[in-house]
Amino acid sequence: MRADRVFAYGATAGLIGDRIFGDPRRGHPVAAFGRAAAAVERALWRDDRARGALHTLVCAGGAVAVGALGARAVRSRPAAAQVALTAVATWAVVGGTSLGREARAIGGALAAGDAEVARERLPHLCGRDPQALDEQQMARAVVESVAENTSDAVVGALVWGAAAGVPGLLAFRAVNTLDAMVGHKSPRHLRYGWASARLDDLVGWPGARLTALAAAAAGPDRRGAVRAWRADAAAHPSPNAGPVEAAFAGALGVRLGGTLAYGGRIEHRAVLNGETGRPVEVADIERAVRLSRRVTWLALGACVALRCAVSYGIRKGRG
């Protein structure tokens, strides 16, 4: 079976598997990778960029090697085995269903007036200090996290799966996980995590743009999404979260960004879609989750189409 069809069938099956089963409560492959990466950090850590780059190379390179070995093992097997490997890899690296479940759990607690339960659950979704947030700020944090993680936890992986098969799927999730572990600006990781953060910016670039495009295409306010993306994305400190959050803000007609609290550190960020957007409401969490799902399937279609077009061009060139 051609590689483009393997990816199309396997990625679709993997997304359906995620939709049905979500993430396993125990034994998740990403959690196993995280434990291995933490062990590598304990062995290599120095307050030094070079050591951090080596950490990134060892961990991300190991994920690529595992993916390449798996793909090689099924290369001569029946097509069903190749599709199954792609499906399992896709299911392992995407997290759209768990993202939606966590967002809805917090939204349900806020709708019921139970702010304390919402604060307890918020760290499962993002790294902000829940004690510093009121109900409206928590709702905004959830919508922002749904937007950003649609790119980080789903679309980015699909893009690299389309580009490089199973190794691409695993590599993207490895880099994204490393960024979450060491790519922040804590005193321990400011220098050590520099390489992981920069590599995550690089590999996340195409997925973030595809996510923003899909949000503009699938959202209730297409013009608003494009307008906010063009006007406000560059003001965000992240080159990839900016387009995604701005597009979601415009598509949903809300304002995102502003003052944030991370572990006692206050950040004042630009407001996204500030000219026409309204404050986020609890009901917007459900709207964001539904938009995230539409973006996921639209992005899958775009990745499959691109993979097929590239494969066709290669065959045409050889012919």
UniProtKB/TrEMBL annotation:
Keywords: Cell membrane, Cobalamin biosynthesis, Membrane, Transmembrane, Transmembrane helix
MF annotations from Gene Ontology: ABC-type vitamin B12 transporter activity; threonine-phosphate decarboxylase activity
Pathway listed: Cofactor biosynthesis; adenosylcobalamin biosynthesis
Principal subcellular localization: membrane
Gene Ontology terms describing biological process: cobalamin biosynthetic process
Entry GO terms, CC: plasma membrane
InterPro entries on file: Cobalamin_biosynth_CobD/CbiB
Domain of life: Bacteria
Compartments, as annotated in UniProt: Cell membrane
Membrane disposition: Multi-pass membrane protein
Presence of the UniProt keyword Transmembrane in the record: yes
Signal peptide feature range: none
Keyword presence, S-adenosyl-L-methionine: no
HAMAP family per the UniProt record, alphabetical: CobD_CbiB (MF_00024)
Function: Converts cobyric acid to cobinamide by the addition of aminopropanol on the F carboxylic group.
Family: Belongs to the CobD/CbiB family.
Name by which UniProt lists this protein: Cobalamin biosynthesis protein CobD
Provenance organism: Streptomyces roseus
Lineage: Bacteria, Bacillati, Actinomycetota, Actinomycetes, Kitasatosporales
